[in-house]
Amino acid sequence: MGQRVATTESGDGVRIAYSVAGSGPPLVYVAGWLSHLELSWALPAERSFYQALAQGRTLIRYDKPGCGLSERTPPERYSMAQELDALDAVAGAAGVERFELMGASLGAAVAATWAARHPERVARLVLYGGWASGADVAAPEIRTHVLGLVRQHWGLASGLLADVFAPDADAGTRAAFVRYQQEAADAETACAMLRAAYRVDLRDVLPQIAAPTLVVHRDRDRAAPIGEGRRLADGIPGAQFKAVEGRSHLPYIGDANALTRAIRQFLGLPGRHRGAAPTLTARQREVAALIAEGRTNREIGERLGITERSAEAHVERIRYRMDFRSRSQIAAWYVASAAPN
């Protein structure tokens, strides 16, 4: 299953990158705090999660303004209004009028707000790992500490947040996710988005949601207490609530199969058919390892005793086989898949 990446412009002229994978009725996915369309497709666990959602659906994802492949905008511009504008733009560019909508983490607040404002356009709504009130996610002193750490020590903070968001990640995936966060956004943008997460207040929004809704939450989520998921479901007329086992906040870490089964069942989809993950030859893995070290094609050729042209050909074969567009994706994939557990 491949991913096609394109761009559009939001109403205020900001370039938004979005991707399309799979086939079938449209499912628009709103990511959480930070996103990067290319690097997320490179992490084997995250890619597998999206492919599970895209079996039987046309999965449409996008990078938030200021994040990932979307245009980098001043952090002070970031707001819920900008988030909703980006979702409008992507739905329009993808040509979908009525669709299923899923939001994860901070994306759950965006999806819930959009669904309340556009009841005629949302066929079904799925909210994962969300919260009704950001002020209740963590104590004030913890929020202040985390915001200060992100702003002043982004490298250290990205490692700390990886431990909070994905305690069940293996060493390789954790290392790749730390790098992923830093490439997805700079410190000020990350801080602005995290501050917005703490300011979420959906208490007046939830009763306005008319779409059939599933709220799904891990029972020991370390980033968003399960009680917040229950508050979301309690506030939405007729919403279903489903608790799944686990403590990782990132949906693709831990028992992702239980999560995708619950989502697919709600969407009326059969069980997922698990296809074989793409693999590389031994020589291609050698090339990928050198790309992860930052080596150029010439340096790869010298290290492996081949010509620069041969090294370039290996890189292109890797990109084709893995459905990657860049060397950074190859590097992220190698880090995530090569480190010991």
TrEMBL record:
Protein name: Alpha/beta fold hydrolase
Keywords, alphabetical: Hydrolase
Domain called HTH luxR-type: residue spans: 273-338
Record PANTHER family: BIFUNCTIONAL LIPASE_ADENYLATE CYCLASE LIPJ (PTHR43433:SF8), HYDROLASE, ALPHA/BETA FOLD FAMILY PROTEIN (PTHR43433)
Pfam families: Abhydrolase_1, GerE
Gene3D superfamilies (UniProt xref): alpha/beta hydrolase, Winged helix-like DNA-binding domain superfamily/Winged helix DNA-binding domain
Organism: Dactylosporangium salmoneum
Classification via InterPro entries: AB_hydrolase (IPR050471), AB_hydrolase_1 (IPR000073), AB_hydrolase_fold (IPR029058), Sig_transdc_resp-reg_C-effctor (IPR016032), Tscrpt_reg_LuxR_C (IPR000792), WH-like_DNA-bd_sf (IPR036388)
GO molecular function: hydrolase activity
